[in-house]
Amino acid sequence: MTSPHAPVLLDEVIEALDPKPGDVMIDATFGAGGYTRAILARGAAVVGLDRDPTVRAHADKVAADFPGRFELKQTPFSGLSAAFAETGHDRLDGAVFDIGVSSMQLDQAERGFSFMRDGPLDMRMSSEGESAADIVNSWDHGPLAHILKLYGEERQSGRVATAILRRRVERPFTRTLDLAEVVEKALGGRRGAPIHPATRTFQALRIAVNDELGELTAGLEAAEATLAPGGRLAVVTFHSLEDRIVKAFLTERTGNTPGGSRHAPLQIETRAPSFTLMFKGAREAGEAERAGNPRARSARLRAAVRTEAPAWGRMAA
Question: Where in this chain does the entry annotate a coiled-coil region (predicted)?
Answer without folding.
Answer: none
